Every structure is written in C-alpha cells, then in structure tokens.
Amino acid sequence: MERYSAWRLFREALNGHRGWTPAWRSPSPKRRYDAVIIGGGGHGLATAYYLAKNHGMTNVAVVERGWLGGGNTGRNTTIVRSNYYHRESARLYDFSVRLYESLSRELNYNVMFSQRGVITLAHSRHDLEVVARWAGAAQLHGVDAEMVSVDEIKRRIPLLDTSPSARFPVWGGLMQRRGGTARHDAVAWGYARAASRLGVDIIQNCEVTGFSRNERGRVVGVETSLGPIAAGVVGLAVAGHSTVLADLAGFRLPVTSYALQAFVSEPLKPVMDTVMLSLATGAYISQSDKGGLVIGGGLDLYPSYAQRGNLPTAQRVIGALADQMPALGRVRLLRQWAGIVDVVPDSSPILGETPVEGLFINCGWGTGGFKAIPAGGTLLAHHLATGEPHPLAEPFGLRRFATGALIDEAAASGIAH
Amino acid sequence: MLLIPCPWCGPRDEIEFRCGGQSHIQRPEPFDAVSDEAWADYLFTRINPKGVSYERWLHVFGCRQWFNVARDTRTHEIHAVYRMGEPKPDLRGVE
Q1: Which of A243, A305, A313 to mutate to test the interface with B (most CBs of B within 10 A)?
Q2: Distance between CA atoms of residues B55 and B84, nearest Å
C-alpha cells in the first residue's frame, strides 16, 4: 500500500490520477480470528488498529453491518475537546486529544485536526459560576481551560449578538484552545487504511446475527450474514445499537438510544474560526473548511432508532441559533440528519468487561463519542489483548452502576442533554 | 412530528408532551433483601428495544396526566395508548 505525500499527489496529478489504489483491502472473512471487532465506525476501526500496532495482534477482523463510518462517525459535528469536570473523564478525554494531535502523521492520513479552540458561552451569573467551577476543575486535572471575557468572545465570534439586549446575553465563557474539529470521515478511513496495512481484515456489509458460545457460556465467535466466524475474543463498538447486540449475547445495559440531530448550511465565506457551544440553548456551531456551518443541539427526547430526528427539536436548535447569531437568519440549510446515540445515566462511557466471558464493550459515549475515538480504540485494544483494563478505563466499567461509583458528567460538564 | 392521542384530550402535537421512559418497571421488594445488582437494574437498566417500546408519557402542556404509549422506536408509529395501571395491550402481529 502506497504512502501518501505531497510528492505522490503531484505525480498522480501529472498522471491523471489513474495510479491510486484502494485505501484498504476488502477480503472475505476467514474462519477464525484472534479478535473480532463488531462495528466499523471510528471506535471499532481504532481498536483494530491499536490491537495491531500496540499489541502485535494482526489476525483481527472488523465486521460492519453497513459501510465504514456510516453511523455516528459520519454523523457527528466533529468537535474535539477534553474540558471535562471529573478527574477520570478529563484524563480520558485529554489522552484522546493528545492522540488526535499526532494522528494525521501517525496514520499517514490527513484527518484535518484543527485546534481552533472551543468556546462555551455563559449567559447568566449562574452560568458564569458553573463555568468558573468547571474551568478550575479542568485546570486542576492539567487540561487547558480558561475563562474568557465578553470582549474576547466578541473578537473571536463577531457573528454573535453580545449586546445587552440580546435574547441570550453573553456574560463570559470558557475556552479550551487545544479543542477544535477534525474531519470525521477521514478519521474512520485513516484508521481503516492503517489497520488494513498492518493485516487487519475489514469486512463491510456483514451483519452480526448472534454469538456462538462454548459449553461454559464463553463467547467463541460470531454468527454473521456471511457465515460463522470463530474468535478468540470479541469487542463490541456499536454505539446506539449496543443493547441490540447485548440482547443477542444475553445481557442488559443501562443504555437508552436517542436520535441526535445535526445540520449543515450552504457554503459561506469564512465567518467563524472557532467552535461555539451555548449553555443556554445547548446549540453548538463551527464552520467546516468547505464553508458549511455545522450545527448541532439537544437530543430528540424519546428513544429512537430512526436516523432522522423530528421537527420540534430541529426548530428549537435552529431557532436558538438564529436568535444568537441574527446575521445567519437567512442562511439556508443543505442537509439535516440524525445519529443514534447511546445515552447512559451518568453520561460517561462503559468500557471493558461484560457479564459474558470473552465479550468486551466500548459504548455509552452518548452525544460525544467522536472526540474519544483514539482513546476508545486504545483502551478496548488494551483490554482485548491483555485481559486487563487500561488504567484510564478502569473507573468506567459496567460494575460502577451496582457499586454506585458513577462519574456524573451529565450535570457536571454542561452537556446539553 | 408526532401526533399523540392523549386518552383525555385526544390527538395533540408532540411538543405538548414529555416522554418519561420505559413503563411497567416494578420496584424490587422487600427493600432490605434487594441486592446491589438488582437495585442497579431497577434504577438504571432499560430494555431499549428496537421495535415496540412500552413507555410513559406526560401531557405536560395539557391535562398534565401520565399515560402509557406503545410506540415503535424504528418508525415512531404509535400502536396503542392506554392508561396508567392498565396491562400492556396485546400487540401480537405488530411486534
């Protein structure tokens, strides 16, 4: 498989771009792998890559029901940040941001990670107190987070109505300068290409329909639409479909699936060079390199597996944004869609062992899984390869719900939902 | 947009309602004999079906009554609406 470089691009340009080869192999499944990863999104592909790279396990398959990155990896609003409130979360997400910082070079694939900063707006004295407490916590955990003044916010986001008569007046905010955005498809494709190069088999259009168990109940393989595949260990990274697969394996999870909508506008000239999140409205917005405004907001607040979303939530998100950035009132939307997110009561991921031997899980990232892809992959790979949880993953085990050691980011870090 | 037939007010727009999650959850008893695992299940574990979901809804901007809805989570189609305390309707052939 060829290396990508400026020189290679130049040579192909002279050659009419006829020399490019597929970025990853698409083999038929073998009868047996040392590890099978269910789910060909960012987390699943990253897990396969780190199994091969960090642990030397190359007899690995990723099985995906649809196409690579066709679920939440290709449906999110691409925001990456690590300014979480609790120590366990801040360490976890900051580990992910640090991996993102070197990811393009490591994968030899431009994931367009742009550390343009993430600004969280406070709209009242109470918001400001929450944000100050939050910035203090992040700093204690070694994460860059700083309070920013209204003047600084006005300078960074000229679109924003910061006048005293604004519908959502701005009192200040929290900024993480190392936060930003990345190209979501590229993250999936980059990991797929790098994993495939190390020998991982990536099998698309292959739906898992069941698990094969030995006489002790241990999972020893998966039944798929392409036939049975034996596996030493199985990893599950399927986000909103986690409980569907858990039902097949015979255990339950504290996960509810909701639709989370996103929107992209027609392309505009550059109007915004940072990411904005609003505590009052839950809306978040950034501008992609193509010029489209990428917009997200709160969940459709009833369980759903329909990747569409409904109009009332769309109106709430778009309406709030039009109030906050009146200049955008006439901008048209190009597309709207939804991803099915796996929401957990404490809004923290579930990582590690399941009640079924031989089956390990990575789920519960809820509305913020994209930012955690490199970390999620590293940690699940570590558990699959060594049989022990990675120290960063240990607090996030499924057992925390019975022991009561919840990591409640839902209230703590201003997640809108 | 969902049109939800409230048992008291008739069909109304979804923005008048709030979903209260899975219905028919029984609190485990007696409380001093319930294990941590069973209590965690009661508090946190949900069926989360891909298909018909039996859930509680509140007509929060209307009559403010709770009631049950049998709704398909794939299509959002509402198969049945029934009052609190009533058993699940028989939806064989739909599920």
Answers
A1: A305
A2: 10
